[in-house]
Amino acid sequence: MTPGRPVPPPLGKVLTPAAEPGGTLTAAMGAVSADSGLVPLTIARRAPKADDVEIDIEFCGLCHSDVHATRGEWGSRPYPLVPGHEIVGRVSRLGSAVADFSVGDLVGVGCLVDSCRECESCLEGLEQYCERGNVGTYGAKDPRNGGAVTQGGYAGSIVVDRRFVLRIPEGLDPAAAAPLLCAGITTFSPLRYFDVESGDVVGVVGLGGLGHMAVKIAKAMGAEVVVFTTSEGKADAARSLGADRVVLSRDAEAMDGAKGTIDVIIDTVAASHDLNPYLRTLRLGGALFQLGLPPEGMPPVNPGLLIRRRLAYSGSLIGGIAETQEMLDFCAGHGVACDIETVGAGELNEAYDRMVAGDVKYRFVLDTKTLHTPSEKADA
User: Fold this and answer.
1) pLDDT number for residue 375
2) Residues 6+ positions from 184 with CB-CB distance below 8 Å
3) What is the pTM of this model?
4) What is the CATH T-level fold of the domain 24-182+337-370, as seen in this structure?
5) Where do the domains of the chain lie?
6) I need a labelling partner for 70 at 20 to 30 A (CA). Which of 9, 77, 161, 352 fits?
7) Does residue 292 contact residue 270 with C-beta atoms inside 8 Å?
């Protein structure tokens, strides 16, 4: 525990309303304030409704956005807050109207647990861009469930509408598959949108959790992959992941040699940086997709670079449910998974500090077997 943080509450303390009849209480790890760190909690899960799937969680990936959310770095949050939106587990109960899943199925839940289902974006399978606001897996008000605040996957179980539950294909390791539900789809979606295929050249800026997935997925699509990094020490790691070339972005001569050689760039860096040198590496009609979200402003983009070579500077947000399933099936078919380090519940705060320091290759995954035992059970 980081010095100065409050002492955790008693093991298994219930910090959310008691479970309704048919619901459950489940062990969890979450924050009770912006500076509390992650502490043991017991939270209530609703009884499955007709279209709901109850999942016993086995693994949950740790995303850098979890750190920002629990520490209040992205604005005020409702506490207690249980993070986690890279969830893999087994179906334990089904609502009466669910026919497309069975008890025991290996399934996943990503960044979304609902959307309006009626707007143009939702009808096109782009729930992440829901025009009325999607419902995030944690820290969001859930209008279909009385406005209750959603709680995420650092927990023993979760209940989710079947429309937002994904099948984990055979052949994917459940722990390594968990981060695919965020890091995997976040990088897959812009590559698929740009129709990357054999013969294309993909540039990847940054080699963290997102960047290493961009390398693997682009290679599986048949592309030549060029990694841009500020660290010469990451060159061997990039090549071991499948990169064909590594360009040191601090080396002006190396960057000059890369001009006009790249079709699409996936920029995963979440710190302020100058995009203009990377835009110069793009071919006519190329595109740079910004995935990292810096907390401060970015240097201005020179519009002349865009105009003279018909370049696009674009953003991309995770993916819709159908595309996320496509990504999982693609990864299973091509042997793609995240490089992970599994941690226990007692190591989560240390893992958060290591993520901030960049000390992970390349994603942490929580093994939920290490959670404490809930202090109560709801009536059946």
Assistant:
1) 46
2) 213, 217, 327, 328, 331, 336, 338
3) 0.92
4) Quinone Oxidoreductase; Chain A, domain 1 (3.90.180)
5) 24-182+337-370, 186-315
6) 161
7) yes
Dist CA 140 CA 134 (whole Å): 9
Longest CA pairwise span in the chain (Å): 69
The mean pLDDT of the chain is 93
Of 111, 109, 122, 117, the closest CA to residue 159 belongs to: 109
Query: What's the token pair of residue 41?
Result: 């909690």
Strand pairing category for 224-229 and 245-248: parallel
Q: Which amino acid is at 125?
A: G
pLDDT given for residue 17 in this prediction: 58
Beta strand ranges found along the chain (DSSP E): 24-30, 39-45, 52-61, 87-94, 106-109, 112-114, 135-136, 141-142, 148-149, 157-161, 166-167, 201-205, 224-229, 245-248, 262-267, 282-290, 312-315, 340-343, 363-367
For residues 124-141, give the mean pLDDT.
97
